[in-house]
Amino acid sequence: MTPRSLIAALTSAALVVSPAAASAQSGGGSLPMPPPPPGAKAGAAKPATPAPAAPAPATPGTEAPASDKKPATAEAPPPIPRKVDPAIFDKALQDYFDGDARAAAGPLYAWLLAAPKTDDNYAWGQYFLAKSLIDLGLTHAGASYLARIARERSNPNVIPRALDALKELTDRPHDDVMIDEQVFGALDLGFLPEETGAYAHYQQGLVDLRVGNERWANTHFAKLSETSAEASHAKFAMLVTRLKQVKEPSEELIADFLGLSKDEKLTREARNEAALAVARLRYERKDFTGALEAYNLVKLPELDPGRASIYLEEAWTRYKLGELRASLGILTTLDAPSFRDEFLPDKYLLRALIYRDLCHYLPAKRAAKELTRRFADSLEAVRNRDDLTQDLRLRRAANSHGGTQRAARFVETLDLEGERLGRYAGSFGDRLFTHLTKLYDLSRAEAVRVYDARLADAVRQEADTLLRAAEQVRLMEYEVGLKLYERVKKGAKIVAPEDEQLLTPDSVAFRFNGEYWNDELKSYRVSIESRCIEETP
Asked: 202: which of 212, 377, 400, 489 is 20 to 30 A away, CA to CA?
């Protein structure tokens, strides 16, 4: 079996990935200063003009020109700040609570531009502007204002609400540097509510794990309640970190992953990742029966087709157990329309191995050639040292998992919200629309930079996987070619066929007619006879 690196797969599942360079904070930092008022108040006293300064003594032998004897003028004092009409804020707030977020956003932004940052309602204005933008589908713009509230901390009453709203946004594609690292990863945790504080401790522990400070990470994780979901996620992250540090995983480590696969506090996806970790570790230890039991722990939603990589791993496991027909049935599953665009070069190698073991040499040769035929363009690009990020197959494979997938989804989110922003050009007003347009342009430029960097690394890994499979296929073709022309010795006979498993009274079998049904994808079995010849001594 030549699956993707085990450690990389588990690290991606635990979200313990190397942090990218800090994303550009589109709209980060402090808000623009309000424009200066047009002149001083009526009735204000004008400053007196100071007396002319005494002229400097002339240099001996010269006479100071008359034009140089002008009096100096003192700078005017700054104008008195103009107070903002609170009715603007109250009206915008009323529009928000009436459910008209579009009408509230423009006035709230205009009020924030004019109001001093020391105003008691300034942080509330940021909060309700953020909530208005989120309600309108502009989640990244809203998150940028919520992040400002958390960083500036001007009003302690607003910070818990802002953090709760940010925590909800982490379930969607988001700027993980701005939210996870710069907000939750850098918070003073003493004043936070229990639920938000638990998430902040978890994020800060992850940051410590990424830089190798396991002791500090344990300090944060120890403050999590044992009954919280964050505690289970933290345990999974710690197990992955320990797995990277050992050459041979112990039974205790596998048992810990197995316990997490049954932890109801975790989401179904997290429990599945823990079960997959158990299956992969047992496979590496050549405990194929135990690995197959762990694959059966993966629970999918009803009628969900499943993940192609899991099917392929299970097919390799059954092949190692000698269940060739069951393995070939799973490979038939991977030919379903749901999986035809999946990047699975090992699928053709495994099919060729099965046909070879059953002495079906021509089908084995065809299966081996199918890999080089299907991935001919990608292999040619690798040989020519082309830009692999422009290869559609390699690019699609890189975008299907890990940090590259998260970065790609965030870029897609920014594109979608950038298009959505155009709908509000008239109702937002010129200032807010211009500000948000600039915010999304800067954020997208940084998100694309991060995505391109991750994509370049990911496509190289996918290209390595393809090259290894292609090399093994070439060796397979050579071996099969020798078998085709091998002479049969006198007295040899065909190996006795295996007894096929009979159907039980509660089982039904149908002949496959080319149709694929999601509820049958794991039930395909292939009936094929062995053509191998047993030589007599």
From this structure: 400
Cα atoms in the Cβ-side hemisphere of radius 13 Å centred on 92? 26
Q: What is the pLDDT of residues 73-102, one digit of tens each?
A: 556 665 544 556 778 899 999 999 999 999
HEC-encoded secondary structure of 116-129 = CCCCCCHHHHHHHH
CB atoms within 10 A of CB 508: 6
Say how far apart CA 112 and CA 253 lie, in whole Å.
Answer: 54
Q: What is the largest CA-CA distance in the chain?
A: 131
pLDDT digits (tens, 9 = 90+) for 123-140: 999 999 999 999 999 999
Token digits for 473? 């296929």
In degrees and rounded to multiples of 5, residue 153 shows phi and psi of 55, 45
C-beta of residue 300 within 8 angstroms of C-beta of residue 495: no
Structure tokens at 514: 């080319």
For residues 110 and 435, the answer to whether their CB atoms sit within 8 Å is no
Residue indicated by tokens 């990244």: 140
How far apart CA 194 and CA 274 sit, in angstroms, is 26
The closest alpha carbon to 175, from 188, 186, 166, belongs to 166
Report d(CA 321, CA 289) in Å as an integer.
7
77-to-38, 45, 80, 407 alpha-carbon distances in Å? 14, 12, 9, 50
Is the pLDDT reported for residue 530 higher than 70?
yes
Distance CA 98, CA 36 (A): 33
- Contact status, residue 269 vs residue 36, Cβ threshold 8 Å: no
Average pLDDT over residues 149-175: 90
- CA-nearest of 16, 439, 21 to 205 is 16
CB atoms within 10 A of CB 278: 24
Is 200 within 8 Å of 187 (Cβ atoms)? yes
Q: In 358-499, where does DSSP find H-type helix?
A: 361-374, 376-383, 392-398, 402-421, 425-428, 430-484
Contact 335, 454 (CB under 8 A): no
CA-based R_g, the chain, Å: 33
Structure tokens belonging to residue 290:
């135990």
Which residues are 502's β-sheet partners? none
How confident is the model over 188-209, as a mean pLDDT?
80
Q: Are 502 and 308 spatial neighbours (Cβ–Cβ below 8 Å)?
A: no
Q: Which letter does DSSP use for residue 4 in this model?
A: S
CB proximity list for 491: less than 8 A, separation 6 or greater: 535, 536
Alpha-carbon gap, residue 15 to 4, rounded angstroms:
17
Residue 144's closest CA among 130, 159, 132, 158?
130
pTM here is: 0.76
CA angle 359, 365, 369 (to 5 degrees): 155
- End-to-end CA separation in angstroms for the chain: 33
Q: Are 257 and 280 in contact (CB under 8 A)?
A: no
28 to 92, 126, 438: CA distances (angstroms): 24, 13, 12
Helices 194-210 and 214-221, interaxial angle, to 10°? Answer: 170
Distance CA 215, CA 526 (A): 52
